[in-house]
Design goal:
It is built from six helices and 16 strands. Strands 6, 8, 9, 10, 11, 12, 13, 14 and 15 form a nine-stranded antiparallel sheet that branches. The chain has a three-stranded antiparallel sheet with strand order 5-4-16. The chain is globular.
């Protein structure tokens, strides 16, 4: 039985978000809501470290000399943790075997701007609509397309059961000794536009969403004043990072938080009566591991044996 994460449908959700944001501007114009002026360049950020940078040293009895050592240690813990499975009982009574470490998903939309201006009406309207589009699910350690190991593959059918992150993927890492037998690693991947899960620096660490060009093109009410979808619709993944705590004795991940940021920019968009409009917004997708028993019961109707 193939159990796909709800995130596999999120490229369509992102496309709908774009349309909703632009259409919401029609409402703003109609109601004459007062916009709040914002620097049009405020959404433009450099691809620099947002976490503390690496400092050579020994943490929890483990020696780290470089970012490469941090990535290697993370990969070893990831592989060991993701190799573990557990039996779950579904509400239907069926027993299934899934990853032992499953996550809890949260999606948020913020920093919405139309033509470089922020508007309270849009800010209040769009997140509620997005909440109705996104249904949290659960999958294995990111990147992961399923909670069932055999079904955990990328868009080309390649396995996601082992770590794909390599030192060249990261822009920054750091290590902290928790003085309790665990250490916490942070890893920030390099910027990628239209990241694909398992295929690039962002997709080697996060459940990135893939290209949304075809989905955007399928929205009949949306067209471009000039240029193509690829030129006018950018989804830059940057600023996200993973925070992972590892038990040094067992080599297993005990807790993990993956914070992914997708900075969406649209230019030259025509939507209904609007012509040649631009929009910017930030989509943040967070996954916390391990998922609680209550979350699994509510979201995937399963209880661990």
């Amino acid at each position: 039985m193939k159990q796909k994460s709800k995130l596999s449908k999120l490229n369509a959700v992102l496309a709908v978000i774009l349309a909703v944001v632009l259409i919401a501007n029609v409402v703003v114009i109609a109601t004459k809501a007062v916009p709040v002026a914002v620097d049009a360049n405020a959404a433009e950020e450099t691809d620099g470290p947002v976490i503390e940078v690496f400092a050579e040293g020994t943490y929890g009895g483990v020696s780290f000399a470089s970012d490469a050592d941090v990535v290697k240690y993370y990969a070893e813990a990831y592989n060991k943790t993701k190799a573990q499975t557990k039996e779950y009982v579904l509400d239907s009574g069926e027993t299934v075997t899934w990853y032992a470490m499953l996550g809890e998903e949260t999606l948020n939309v913020s920093n919405i701007m139309i033509e470089g201006k922020e508007n309270a009406t849009i800010n209040n309207l769009v997140p509620g609509i997005v909440g109705g589009l996104f249904t949290p699910g659960s999958a294995g350690l990111a990147p992961s397309a399923s909670r069932e190991p055999a079904a955990d593959t990328d868009e080309d059918g390649q396995s996601l059961q082992t770590c794909l992150l390599v030192p060249e993927d990261v822009i920054a890492t750091n290590v902290k000794d928790n003085n309790d037998g665990t250490i916490t690693l942070q890893l920030q991947p390099k910027e990628v536009n239209m990241s694909h899960k398992g295929k690039d620096a962002q997709g080697h660490l996060f459940n990135s969403l893939g290209a949304i060009d075809k989905t955007v093109d399928s929205i009949t009410m949306l067209s471009w004043q000039s240029g193509t979808t690829a030129e006018n619709c950018l989804v830059n993944y940057k600023g996200g990072y993973a925070t992972v705590t590892i038990d040094t004795a067992s080599g297993l991940i005990t807790t993990a938080d993956y914070h992914m940021e997708a900075h969406i920019s649209v230019t030259h968009a025509n939507v209904t009566v609007l012509k040649d409009k631009s929009a910017n917004l930030l989509v943040t997708y967070d996954v916390h591991y391990p998922a609680s028993a209550d979350y699994l019961k509510e979201r995937v109707a399963a209880t661990a044996k």
